Task: structure prediction
Amino acid sequence: MLKLEKVHTFYGPIEALKGIVIEIREGEIVSLIGSNGAGKSTCLMTISGVLKPSSGRILLKDSDITGLAPHKIVGRGISQVPEGRRIFPKLTVRENLEMGAFLRHGDFSSELERMFKLFPVLKERQKQYGGTLSGGEQQMLAIARALMSNPHILLLDEPSLGLAPIMVSKIFRTIHEINSEGMTILLVEQNAKAALKLSHRGYVIENGKISIQGRSEELLNDEKVRHAYLGE
Ligand SMILES: Nc1ncnc2c1ncn2[C@@H]1O[C@H](COP(=O)(O)OP(=O)(O)O)[C@@H](O)[C@H]1O
Ligand SMILES: [Mg+2]
Result:
């Protein structure tokens, strides 16, 4: 579904991604874990076209999308939920969702219905301003907004960050549910244990490079991963 081939990304003179190789197959949840500053968000922003790689290729279903503008990449079927959610606080819940469908011409009422079914709380609050929702509800809104474009793959950047424990489990259950319905997901998380438990495979990124990769059970049992990322 999605392939990164030796992707390098710079911030000015600083090389944040140093030859990232990642492959995500259709229907998978793949976790990308790593410490603060390792390059996780840079990796997602490079996939979504917000940052341009200096070299390497990004392929979606074998078609080269490297260097395309962000809206073109959304149009190809990659949708990102950015770190910190970034919903529109002064738009209503419903308007936020409509923004997610901005590239779809014509009717998107079936997508809206699907989102209200997946997140009943958003249906109840559809006329409320986004900014009045709780952190967990805003994260659900951000995920629902990203799904409104009917993507092939969803990129999630730290969806559990800053949420109360009960909301964290709810968000993880939601991610599982979306995947069960067929969505391919790349999940970036500091909460490595929960992410690996949920996903099929995982990659560890360290200082802009993939250092370990494997099936999630393998990573959960890996001595180095347990020590460095699972606090065991
Ligand atoms: N806008 C930026 N300008 C310069 N350096 C940045 C910028 N954003 C991130 N970086 C640097 O790139 C590296 C990777 O950052 P990031 O991808 O945000 O890490 P993570 O998401 O894993 O915490 C870090 O060293 C960070 O300081
Ligand atoms: Mg980050």
Q: What stands out?
A: The longest strand covers residues 14-24. The pocket of magnesium ion (ligand 2) is lined by residues 40-41, 83 (CB under 6 Å).
